Amino acid sequence: MPRSTNSPASRRRRKRVLEQAKGYFGNKSRLYRYANDAVNHALQYAYRDRRNKKRTWRSLWITRLNAACRENGITYSRFVEGLDYANIGLDRKALADIAVRDAAAFTVIVNKTRAALEAKAAVLEEGDDLCKLEGVRTKIRQILADGGITTFAQLAETPVERLKELVAAAGPRFKGIDPSTWPEQASYAAKGDWRSFNKLTAELRGIRRV
């Protein structure tokens, strides 16, 4: 039997690689073996740098926003925090473009975020210091305040399931938080029974009862 080959398909495959290597230096654009290596490397670099490009642009947007925020008397971190409370859904790309092209409009946005931060601070000042409870820190206190819980009495009356929903909605970083003892702690704090409160917290390991 005569030997059969698949030369038309092989030739097309090689031509496709050489077309991708067009313009490469020396043998990398003329000989298949070298061109194939060069194209494979180029595809790996392209895959990597498509992601690095996003990272670089995000860094540039943050730098521009930080500079614009400083000119308006606010830090970048406080500005981003205020955006959430002011319900401003613009992303960093759009905000950086506004900061560069329309400084007056950006100042209006900054003023709105500053007002939202002041309103948030006023709400927290009216309530109790929930950070006294075991397992409650500043971020958790803010999550509870967003859910309308700012005092020990309100927390004591809140079902544990509701607290778990609030914590879960805050994102995966709070996944390990267990609020099951917060209402009991808050009930003692609301009554001013700090002896029972301290006894309870002594029984806790982290935020769970031993």
Report on this model:
With about 210 residues, this protein is mainly alpha-helical. The protein has a domain at about 130-210. It contains ten helices and two strands, in the order ααααααααααββ. It has helices at about 5-20, 30-70, 75-85, 90-100, 105-125, 140-145, 150-155, 160-170, 180-190, 195-200; strands spanning about 205, 210. A two-stranded antiparallel sheet has the order 1-2. It is elongated. The termini are far apart.
The N- and C-terminal alpha carbons lie at a distance of 82 Å
**Gyration radius over CA:** 29 Å
Please report the total strand number as a whole number. Answer: 2
* Approximate strand percentage: under 5%
Mean pLDDT: 88
Q: Which sheet architecture does the biggest sheet show?
A: 2 strands, antiparallel
Give the overall shape: elongated
Give start-end ranges of low-pLDDT stretches.
Answer: none
- Roughly how much helix do the residues carry, as a percent range? 55-70%
SS-based structural class? mainly alpha
Annotation field: number of helices: 10
Order of helices and strands: HHHHHHHHHHEE
Question: Looking across the biggest beta sheet, what order are the strands in?
Answer: 1-2
